[in-house]
Structure formats: structure tokens, C-alpha cells
Specification:
Blueprint (H helix, E strand, L loop, with lengths): L8 E5 L4 E5 L3 H7 L3 H11 L13 E5 L13 E6 L6 E6 L3 H7 L4 E5 L6 E6 L2 E6 L8 H12 L5 E4 L2 H4 L7 E3 L3 E3 L4 H7 L2 E7 L9 H18 L1 H6 L5 H7 L20 H7 L1 E5 L9 E4 L16 H6 L9 H14 L3 H16 L9
Parallel strand pairs: 1-6, 7-12
Antiparallel strand pairs: 1-2, 3-4, 3-6, 4-5, 7-8, 9-10, 9-12, 10-11, 13-14
Amino acid sequence: MKHGFMGKILRVDLSKDRISFDEPEESFYRRYFGGRGLIAYFLLKELEPWVDPLSSSNKLIFACGPLTGAPISGSGRNSVGAKSPLTGAYGEAEAGGFWGTELKRAGFDAIIVEGKASSPVYLWVRDGNVEVKDASHLWGLEIKKSRETLRKDLEDSSVKVAQIGPGGEKMVRYASVINGMSHVAGRCGMGAVMGSKNLKAIVVSGSRDVSVSDPEGLRQLAQWMVRNVKDVAYNFHNYGTGASMDAFEETGNLPVRNFRDGEFPGVDLISAQAVKESVRVGMGTCFACAVACKKEVKVEEPWNVDPVYGGPEYETLAALGSNCGVDDLKAICKANELCQRYSLDTISTGATISFAMECFESGLLGEEDT
């Protein structure tokens, strides 16, 4: 494999405690490219259509793209896919951060997880070596404590972790997979599939270089992005997502009260600009990315919000804010933190809450149901 890929896919069968490796031809990568292309290929080719998404027969696939790990803005992403327990169809989510780059540096383009472990486990992948390790002491832990424990157990504070919290363990059908502390593969219930396999985490560490065809050309392009980021990505760089919520409200594109209403007078109270002015303490980033669009928020009263869990993206501000009729930014930040701690998708969580609120208002749910 010349450039863009490591040329190896890791397979782990948790039922049979078996580890194996696929080494596809270059033509395979040229046809399916990576990321969701690899995921779609393996799911369509290897899954029977009747498979229960939460059974041991489902496959959970983590896949990188050809740019993952290349030193340029936008390259720090990976996909997670499986048959979705939320829809019963193809499911895929993406996350940023540093985990995908570390997987490539560890020697793999993708991981295919099959079967189900008899008890909680995690995968330890380091420079081509793979171990299935006991995770009984991690089961039930929230994201922050779990990562701290893993790094202590492995005596390495630099390892990168993709994991689930209690939401994934309990197989909530919209549970997410968390990279690091705040980078989320949120959609389609991939965390529930991970929990159904008794897989708490995948920990990766690598030291290999990701080969690119034109290192000097890529370096120049990356430096151009650093110099011009404020011109080409000003809003993302300065505010993160959610800087245009007022325009979305004006055009009817903002979800309001379970998608029932069109106006939300408190939109300016929960925008990305409001986040920056009142609760933001920093902006995080992903591997090699000059945009640095990841909000970090801190709240001390009336609730404590830990900035390590990042801050609410546009979708979260809308789903847990306007769609629930909430214009209290601190409350939204706390709800976002809870979703991160438990590994729950903020979009589906907000949509579920807003639906329940309307059901209650319409008499379909009563106090005994809440």
C-alpha cells in the first residue's frame, strides 16, 4: 500500500476470543475508499438482513479514511458503523478528535468487532499488537472516570480511547461512542451495539507514520490553512457551530418545541455567540486542525459543568434548547455534559424529551408516567 492507508484491517471475534487480520489489495481501497465506504461494504457483504442489531451476529466497524492521520485540517475523523438498533437499517456515525489518527498510527485502517464477550472487555491496540482485556472494573463508570482508570492501568497517559458510558452499557438505542472526552460518534445507536457486545472501550496507541504522496505539498497546504483560517472558516474558528441560529429561526429551519412551532424569541440567549460571551473557557481541536471549533464550557452555578466534556454544538443547542422550549444556556450546557458522561446522543435525547413534553401537554402521558 503506497499512500493513505496502512493496508491492514483488524478483526476481533469476541465470542471465539479470536484475533485475525485482513490485508486487502490496493484495488479494494481504491474502490471502497475508506470510512463509511468500508463500513457499507462489510455490512452489506457479511450481514444477513434479518440480524437483530443488538445480537452477537451484528458487526461493529470502526473505519478511517485515506486522509485520517495526514497532518492537515479536517483529517482527524473516523466512522463507526453497524446495523442500527434505532432504525433497523444501515447505521453510521462520525467523530473527530485524535482516536482515528492513533488507530492508523497503530497500523490499522479499520477494526471489525464480531460476536459478544461473555463479560465486559476492552481492546488494547498498540503498534500492531492486539489484546482483549478484562473491563469488569470499568463497567458502570462514566466517561471521565473510565478513561482515567484505563490510562492508569496501562501506565500511559497518552493513549487514545473510544468508549461507552452507562447509556451504551444499558443499550439505550441512541447511545453514542465517545472519542476522548468530547468527540462523539452520536447517531444511529452505535454505543448500544458496542454495549451489546460487552465492549467497554477500544484503546489505541501508535508510533507509525501515515504515508502521503506529496509531503511537501501537503505541508504547504496545511500552513496556508493556518494562515488563512480566519478568512475561510471565521465563524467555526471564532464560535464553533451554532453562530447562525438567529437566521435559522427566521427561515423556519430551527426546531422549536418538538418541531411544532416556528418562532423562538430566546434564540439569541442560546446561540454560539451567547456561549462565547457567557460560559466558554476555551476552544478545543482535532488532530492537526487549525479550525479549532470545539467549544469548552464551564459553569459553576446553579449546576457544575466540567469543561473536559466540551460544550454544546449547534445540534445540541437546538435539540436540548429550542426544541424543548428551553432558553437557559446553563441548563443546556448541563444537559450536554450529562449526555457526554453517559454516552447518549444529544440530538435523539432532546428529540425524545421534546416528544414526551408534547405528549404530557396533550394528556397522552400523565404524572404517573414521569
